[in-house]
Amino acid sequence: MDFEELISQNTPFTIIYMDLDNLKKVNDAYGHSVGDEYLKQFTKATIETVGNKGNLYRMSGDEFVCIYREVRIDLFFSTFNGKISNRFAMNIPFLGVSIGYSKFPEDGDSLDKLIKKADTKMYSVKNNQSE
Q: For the domain that residue 64 is a member of, what is the CATH number?
């Protein structure tokens, strides 16, 4: 409903699609309770980054999508990197996140198109990191 409202009002925004890298390694090495804490810290850092400019939604185990009511994605990245560094002062390192994004209206006029484009970019980033 949040997406549809912004689209119907023709309000520019960015869809940010995020997939945590190597969450299975965290669970295998440290246990699922630490993996759960890892997810919580990632979520908190992302919510702090977005602030009152959007919302974060969990799509599946380690995939998230964010509505960011801002078109300057560089603002998200600059804040996000600092928040992640602060949050992951745990006993385990942050193993990364692959991020793709799309912008309304230039990248699509429906939620499906925007998520597909952001997801495609995210997988491109993920594949380039693993090479």
A: 3.30.70.270
